[in-house]
Every structure is written in structure tokens, then in C-alpha cells.
């Protein structure tokens, strides 16, 4: 009987030591639960497949197209670079490698060469203060020739985009 008490005297009736730690099979921090105490798994709530990897510790962003170099939070490939281009009436603008954001401040006639929506190029009309519906209602003529399309807003405003088929996916307005 004396040997039994000497062997287990450091633990109380529930198996805890004097500080409440070190039950048999548990470490000092109490983290010997299944799925814990392995490299990258010692944080509560992060023991799920697809998490605990560099760049993946935010819920909702563990999908292809997210958290990769050169991609934005919506999964658009910005190729690690995003350039602001002021489009001035009468001047020819040219898209470069990577994503270009063409900002239209004034009204006039524009030509944008080497436009590529797959690289993330965008037409930004937020300075005009109009929604897509309001911009669309002002269009008087659209002509498409291969990868060039021309949008006319009456006689005083036109945009010629070379290198892209027409789509609203690459247009930014005040509504987003």
C-alpha cells in the first residue's frame, strides 16, 4: 500500500498535478489532444486541411486563385503589378505588361492600344460619377472590328479600345 501511494502522490484524485497540468499523456500546455502539437497545428481553430500553410490562415481564402503571388483578393491575375494610367482626350494610351487601370477624367475622344482584359486591364469611369446603366444609356453607336471596338457617346465622346472584345466585366463605375 505504501508503494502505491508513493508512486501516485504527485497527482490528485482527477489525475492533475499541483498546478493542474501534466495528466498522464498530456504535455505542460495541455495540448496533447488529437490534431494538436504537430508542426503548424498548435493554434486552436486552425487544424483543418488547407489551413496552417503560408498565406492560407484566413477563412474563405483557401481556394484556387487566392493568396498567390500576383493575384488580388478576388482572384484576378494582376501579375504582381497594377498600374494607374490617366487617359487624356486626344492622346493615345497604350497598355503594358500586366494590369493597367485606365482612368477617364474628362470627356473627349480616346484610343487605347494593346488593351488586355485577361491581364486585368480595366476602364475606370468613377470620375464621371455615373453608373453602368447611366453610361450604357448614353451610348449612341458601337462598332466592332475583330479585336477592336469603338464606343460613341454622341459626337463629342468616343472610346476606341484595341485588343479586347466588348464586355462590361472590365469596366469600373461609381457602383463598383
Layout of secondary structure:
Layout: H1 2-8, E1 82-87, E2 92-94, E3 99-104, E4 109-113, E5 122-124, H2 132-137, E6 141-145, E7 148-153, E8 157-162, E9 171-172
Parallel strand pairs: 1-3, 2-4, 3-5, 4-8, 5-9
Antiparallel strand pairs: 6-7, 7-8
Biased composition (Basic and acidic residues): 19-86
Region (Disordered): 1-92
Could you walk me through the main structural features you see in this protein, from its secondary elements to its overall organization?
The strands form two sheets. A five-stranded mixed beta sheet has the order 2-4-8-7-6, with no helix packed on it. The chain has a four-stranded parallel beta sheet with strand order 1-3-5-9, with no helix packed on it. The chain contains two helices and nine strands. Residues 61-70 have low confidence and may be disordered. The protein has helices spanning 2-8, 132-137; strands at residues 82-87, 92-94, 99-104, 109-113, 122-124, 141-145, 148-153, 157-162, 171-172. It has 176 residues and is mainly beta. Strand 7 (148-153) and strand 8 form a beta hairpin. The longest helix has 7 residues, at 2-8.
**Cα radius of gyration in angstroms:** 30 Å
First and last CA, distance: 79 Å
Helix-strand string: HEEEEEHEEEE
Low-confidence parts: 61-70
Largest sheet: 5 strands, mixed
Large-scale geometry: elongated
What is the average per-residue confidence, as pLDDT, rounded to a whole number? Answer: 68
Number of strands: 9
Total number of helices:
2
- Give the helix proportion (percent range): under 10%
Counting structural domains, the number is 2
Structural class: mainly beta
- List the strand order in the largest sheet: 2-4-8-7-6
Beta percentage is 15-25%
Region (Disordered): 1-92
Biased composition (Basic and acidic residues): 19-86
Amino acid at each position: 500500500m505504501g508503494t502505491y501511494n508513493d508512486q501516485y502522490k504527485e497527482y490528485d484524485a482527477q489525475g492533475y498535478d499541483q498546478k493542474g497540468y501534466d495528466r498522464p499523456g498530456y504535455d505542460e500546455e495541455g495540448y496533447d489532444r488529437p490534431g494538436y502539437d504537430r508542426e503548424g497545428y498548435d493554434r486552436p481553430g486552425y487544424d483543418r486541411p488547407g489551413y496552417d500553410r503560408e498565406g492560407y490562415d484566413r477563412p474563405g481564402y483557401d481556394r484556387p486563385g487566392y493568396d498567390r503571388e500576383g493575384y488580388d483578393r478576388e482572384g484576378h491575375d494582376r501579375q504582381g503589378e497594377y498600374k494607374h494610367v490617366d487617359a487624356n482626350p486626344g492622346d493615345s494610351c497604350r497598355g503594358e505588361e500586366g494590369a493597367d487601370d485606365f482612368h477617364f477624367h474628362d470627356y473627349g475622344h480616346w484610343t487605347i492600344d494593346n488593351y488586355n482584359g485577361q491581364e486585368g486591364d480595366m476602364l475606370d469611369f468613377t470620375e464621371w460619377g455615373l453608373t453602368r446603366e447611366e453610361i450604357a444609356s448614353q451610348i449612341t453607336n458601337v462598332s466592332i472590328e475583330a479585336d477592336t471596338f469603338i464606343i460613341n457617346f454622341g459626337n463629342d465622346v468616343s472610346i476606341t479600345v484595341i485588343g479586347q472584345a466588348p464586355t462590361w466585366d472590365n469596366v469600373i463605375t461609381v457602383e463598383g
